[in-house]
Amino acid sequence: MEPLGLLYIKTALESHGNDVDIYDATASGKVKKIKTPPEFKHLDKYYEKDFSPFSLHNGYKRFGDSFKKIIQFCENGNYDIIGISSLFSAYHPDVEKLASEIKKASRSTLVIGGAAVNSLSETAVKKSAADYMISGCGTVSMPLFVQFLLKNLDASKVPGLIYEKNRQIYRNKPSKDPPWKGNIVPIRESFRTFRKKTVAKTIFSSGCKNKCVFCSIHRENSFEQRGIESIRDELDYLFKAGAEIIDIEDDDIFGSDCYSLKLLDLLEDFHKKGFAFTAMNGLTARNILPIIDKFPKAGFFKLDLSLVTTSQSASEKMKRPHDISDIMEIVKAVKGKMDVEVYLIPGLPGTSLMETAETMKILYKNNIKCGLSPLYPVPGVPLFEKTGIPENLNLCRGTALYTFKNDVRDNIVSLLKISRFLNYSQVAENNDLYRTNLFYFLKSLQRRQWFKKTQDNKWLDSFSFSEKFADIFDDLFLD
After folding, report:
1. Segment 79-102, tens digit of pLDDT
2. Per CATH, the architecture of 4-29+64-171 is what?
3. What's the pTM?
């Protein structure tokens, strides 16, 4: 959750003599259950109170501080410019609500930036409460934006600036420079914790060499790798500042053989000093397989690998770079030295849900944790523009399950529940309640209707589904 992009922008602005504060609205860790918006009412039967090990989240929650507290901070600071980060299209409506409230309470110039801005239509920009928007690299654009507001620079010279003039919307070509442009090392004033250790995020590359058709990363960012010495400088700073775990935020870390070996040697040096590493999004199985023996030595304690599907035809259509054989080779090579979690996308065009279930079974039998990410529409990506982007962008979040009809939705959620139980079973076989939980899990699959567990240990009926998942999983738990 560390706001890494804002930290880069803050450092860039300060290097040009500006005073900058960051308000991290999630740092408080506050979680508040609130009324479910009308557009999500169809989800109530899935996200319900359930105390079983195959439960999902329940209710609708706000994470982080209230708008009131954020606006009070803005008012107290009396800022010339207020910038809001909008990273995901599915949450941009909330950003716009905040922007509207800020403009009511403040005379500050308001600018919105981030990945969600890239795909906004001219209509959405016209309706925005913000004075300006910026797409592309903020570390390059924001110092120039300040110069524009000081009337030292024409608006056309600010990369990525989106603005209205004479009732017409203008969009400058965005900067595709990486966030570390100029060898920026973001300064930390505090750290969050993960596994009871201090954790910091960093980035070693931008963009992605892979061309997966359901992803926007390769469309918006050119692939560029950071210099090894620049990485050394930041890791050295983070070590001295007190970080213990480094989370690498890249989308494609080890895409070059020579570079990868140098980088792993560098990480091994810092692991010997005490650092541990994880990368929750940027590991391509086929790239790391030839060098996997170096990962434990470099301090990686977990491998998050995106498989998406085992269907060869679907993989080819989606331009996926690897298959399950690469992952099995990696699991064999690490021999328990690292946790491995593999991610699938149920509902991907060209795949079946029973096929996804079969893959989940294979992963479980090999003691591999399985994570599921239901397909969700991404504005600006041709695959989803063809099928239709909802007018209400809130429905683009994965948990909204917008891309599926009711019957399919029941089965997609059932796979989520199955993955929860499979992961639970890997660690809970000696739990006193395991046999009871297993009974109700298997019974749910057999009758194609879920049980849910109340807080006082009663088992009640929940929603039904149509797929014959019992045919796949019934024999998995035979003694």
Report:
1. 999 999 999 999 999 999 999 999
2. 3-Layer(aba) Sandwich (3.40)
3. 0.90
